[in-house]
Amino acid sequence: MSLIVAKFGGTSVASPERIQMVAKRVAAIKGAGNEVVAVVSAMGKTTDELVSLARALNTDPPAREMDRLLSTGEQISMTLLAMALSTLGHQAMSFTGRQAGIETDGTHEKAKIVKVSAKRIRKALDQGYIPVIAGFQGIDFNGDITTLGRGGSDTTAVAIAWGIKADVCEIYSDVDGVYTADPRVAPRAQKLTTINYDDMLELSSVGAGVLQMRAVEFARKYKVVIHARSAFTDTSGTYIKEATSKMEEAVITGIAHDTSEVKITIRGVPDTTGIAAKVFSALANNTVNTDMIIQNISEVGLTDITFTCPEADLKRAQETIESVLPEIGAREYDVDEDIAKVSIVGTGMKSSPGIAAKMFEALGEKEINILAISTSPIRLSVVVDGAQTVAAVRCLHTAFGLDSENIFKESQLSAEELAAKLQKGR
Amino acid sequence: MSLIVAKFGGTSVASPERIQMVAKRVAAIKGAGNEVVAVVSAMGKTTDELVSLARALNTDPPAREMDRLLSTGEQISMTLLAMALSTLGHQAMSFTGRQAGIETDGTHEKAKIVKVSAKRIRKALDQGYIPVIAGFQGIDFNGDITTLGRGGSDTTAVAIAWGIKADVCEIYSDVDGVYTADPRVAPRAQKLTTINYDDMLELSSVGAGVLQMRAVEFARKYKVVIHARSAFTDTSGTYIKEATSKMEEAVITGIAHDTSEVKITIRGVPDTTGIAAKVFSALANNTVNTDMIIQNISEVGLTDITFTCPEADLKRAQETIESVLPEIGAREYDVDEDIAKVSIVGTGMKSSPGIAAKMFEALGEKEINILAISTSPIRLSVVVDGAQTVAAVRCLHTAFGLDSENIFKESQLSAEELAAKLQKGR
Known about the structure:
- The structure is a homodimer.
- Chain A is an alpha/beta fold.
- Chain A is about 35% helix and about 25% strand.
- Chain A has 12 helices and 20 strands.
- Chain A has an 8-stranded mixed β-sheet with strand order 3-6-2-1-9-11-12-10, sandwiched between helices. In chain A, strands 13-18-20-19 form a 4-stranded antiparallel β-sheet, with helices on both faces.
- In chain A, α2 (about 45-55) packs antiparallel against α3, α6 (about 195-205) runs antiparallel to α7 and α8 (about 275-285) packs antiparallel against α9 (about 315-330).
- The interface between A and B is medium-sized, with 35 and 35 residues.
C-alpha cells in the first residue's frame, strides 16, 4: 500500500465528462489498495475567464481581490471531483488551500509556501475519505487567500505530498513523461524512466515544459518523488527524484529547444566603461528578462551588444532601447525574431570534458551557425537560426547517443514541415 | 452620518456593466458622508449554472460539497464589486461569509445563523474601507462553508446590519418598494411608506415576493430596519420596521395573490377517525407542503377532503394520493390547477370586527365564488377560480379603501389580458 498524491491539470477537469474520467482514475488508485489525495486545477479556461471579468472592471485589480477571485476556480473543480467520486461510491471530501493547511507569505498573486499543516488531510485519510484539494492557493498570516502563481497547482501537489509524507506525487497531464527531446522534433527521442531534480530543473529552464519549475524546486528541497505521467494512458511516466548511483549515467540527459525568445543587437555602441551597465539596468527596470548577452568588438572604438529576451518582453525592450540609444551614443539596433535556443543538459557533463567541442562539431557538420552561447555547470545552450531548430535538435540527439531504435509514432512531419510549424507556433 | 448596509441581488450584479452601476451607487452612499457595507448575491444565473454542473456529476450531490460549490458564486461577485469600487477611487475589501463572521449551524444548504462576529467588518470600516460581503453563506462549527438557502443574501444583509448596529439595511432590487397590491394587477395600488414586520411577513407568506421571509423574521427578532428600494431609481422605497403609533393605522395593509398553488380534492373518503391523519402524514412524508385544508360531508358516511399545495409539489402529491387511495378506501381524486389564493393582510384586523363579512360581501358582489378559506390573526385568504384573480384583487383593494387617486403607469393591460398573463406565468 502506498500513499499517493495525484494532481490533475485544467485540461483534465475541463468538463463534467473529464471530471468523471479523473474520478475513475482516482478511484482506481484507491481500489488498488492505496491511500490517495487528489489535487486539482481550475476547469479549462476558467482562470482566463475570471481574469477577463476582473479586467473589465479594473485595469489594475487589487492583488488581494484578484487572488480571492481566481481561487474560486479550483474551489469549483474540487467540489465537482468530490461529487463525482461520491457517485462512484467513494467517500470524498474537498479542501480549500486554507483547509489543506497551505500557509504562504503575503505576496498576493505569487505567494510562497511557508508551511504545510496537513493534519486535517491526514485525519480525513484515516477516516477513509479521499481528500480533494484545491490547487494553486493558500492562506497568509492575515487569513487572506493567496495564490501561488500560474501553474501553482503542481506546487500545491508537491507541498501536500511532503506534508503527508506521500510515497509519490503523481502529476497527470496530456504528456506521458519527460523525453530526451521533444518527440515531435526528434522522432527518435526516448522517454526517460527517471531524471534527477537538477537535470529536470535545467531542462525546464530552457524550454521543456512538462512540469512547473517551482514544483520541481520544492520537490528537490524536500526530496519529494514526482511521477510525471499521462492522464490518458496507464503506462508509467518519468520519475523525478534524487540522483542515485543506480540511475543511468548518461552524460547528456536531454536536449531542449525554445523558440519563444528574440535576439536584439544594438550596433555601434561606444566601447566605454559603464555603457553595458546602462543598457541592462534600463532593461531590468522595464522588467525585460534578458537571457544571453554577447558583446563583440566590430569596429575600432565601437562595439555591438547582443542579447536575447522572451518575445513577450520585446515591446518593452524596444521602448527601452529607443529611449537609451541617444544617451549611450549608439547608432541603431535590430531585432531577429526568428531564432531558437537549443540546449543540451546533463549532470554528467560536470565530469566529462569535451562536451562543448562535441556539440559545436556536431552543429558544424550540419552547417548550423551558432549565433550565441551560454552555459551553466550542467547545461550548454546555443542560439541558432529558427529555420535550423529541427536540424540542430536532431543532430545533437544523435551525437550524444540519445537516439532510440524506435521512431516516435506521432512524429509524421518532415523536417521542413516541423520547422514551419515551430515558427508558426511562436 | 449613517451606517448603512446595502444589499444587491443577482440581477443587479449580472454583468460587469451592472456591477459598475452598483459600485457607483455604493460610492454615492459613501460620498454622501455615510459609512457603507455592501452585500452581494451571485451574478445572474451563476448559481443555477453551478447546480447544473453538480447534477451532471451526481444526481444527489453531498450537501457539504454543494455548499462549497455554490458559495463560489458570491465570492466572485464580491471581488468584482471590490475591484469596481477601487476603480472609482475607493478602498474596498471583500469578505467571505466566514471572514464577515457569519457563524451558522451545520445544516448544509439551509443553515441558520447562530452568531455574527462583525469585528473584522467594523475594523475595515474604521480604516476607511468599504467592506463588500459575500451573501448567502456562513461557516459552521467545523470550519466548513454552509449556505443559507436560496435568497439567503437578504438574510446575510440583515444579520450584518444587526452585527454592526447599522442604522438601516437597504435591500435593492428591481422592485421599488412594497405595494398595497401587485400594481400590474391593481392599477390603483399604492407604495407603502412603511410596513410593520408582522404585516410584511404575512404578505410575504401569501405571495408578495419583495423580500425573503427569513430576512424579515431575522429583522423582526433583532429590530433591524429594512429599506426595500429600487436599484434603478433614487426614490425612497418602503421601510419595514416595528409598528409605532405614528404608522398609518389602516385596517388592511395590503392584498396579495398567489397563483402558484393547485387544489386537490379526494372524493368519497369514508368518514372515519384517522383517515385525514393518514392522508396528510403520507403527504408530509413525501415533502408535500399542504396549505389550506377543507373537509366536506358530501354523502352519508362519505366525505371529500380538499387541500391546496404548491404546484411544484403536485407530482409528489399525486403519487402519494394514488398510493393511499386503496388503503383509505377513497373513490377518486381530482386536481384543479387553475386557482388563485387571494389574501388580505393587516395587523389592524385584530381590533376591527367585520372584516371577513366585508371581504365576502365584496367578492359576492362581483359574483366571485369562494372555493376555500383560511385565516390567521392578521390575514384572511380565499381560494378563487384562477380566471377571477384580477377581479378579486381589484374589488378587495377598493373595498378596503386602498385605492390611490393615481393609476399605476405600468399597468396598461386589460383585466382579461392580465388574467391570461397571470395564468400563463404559473
